[in-house]
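Let us practice reading a record.
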Amino acid sequence: QVQLVESGGGLVQAGGSLRLSCAASRSINTINAMGWYRQAPGKQRELVARITRGGSTNYADSVKGRFTISRDNAKNTVYLQMNSLKPEDTAVYYCAIVGSNYWGQGTQVTVSS
């Protein structure tokens, strides 16, 4: 089993930046892919970004060029750097092991206009 704990959410003005962190309770070295998802009110949860064990990344079209996912295996942590934030980025952001039932509790990101 593994526990995932997100942090770093908050309230920010449009155009601002936030960095989310996802700390795992055990080594993530052997995890094939970690992902950040988000769910806005009244909308389905969507994949925002994912990173493989080898460091390959994929992003939703809506965040390309603005968000960057990274992982620090030594710290068992995955990050999501979010720049040029827009009000439509407002959502609860979740960290997860892609393809598994392991999810964090979520962290709220609110972007004001």
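A brief commentary: Residues 38 and 93 are 4 Å apart (CA to CA).
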